[in-house]
Target: PaaI family thioesterase
Amino acid sequence: MSMDINKFLDFHRDNGGTGKLFNFEFKEHKEGFLELSGEFNELCLNPDGSVQGGMMTSMLDDVTALLLIFESGGTLYPSSTDLHTLHHRPLFKGKVTARAILMKKGKNIATVRGELLNKDGKLVTTLVHTVFLIDRENRF
Model:
């Protein structure tokens, strides 16, 4: 793909609240796969010092959506119909790896798996994200 993913990450950072919060950086892309680094700061923590589960879900919501947006060249917008999250171990403040893996994409519906890995490369959270694909070019 000849487009620059950083254009999409910059747009996400400049126009979205979580884009400012998670501080995404590009790591790898191949068709149906996106890997970013992200960060959870003190605003994302439970009182016990671990990352709040909803924040992990939010990050994976963003990464799985960004894969679909990027691969469509910005012509599709994924509108969530289901987010199913499994938390496997606690996560703490700092850098993480966030992955999106396309499971199935049809004309109107797509399902993408998201994974968060801690600084040691261990799986922390898995997300299954089902979306309705909105055609941004012909939606009106």
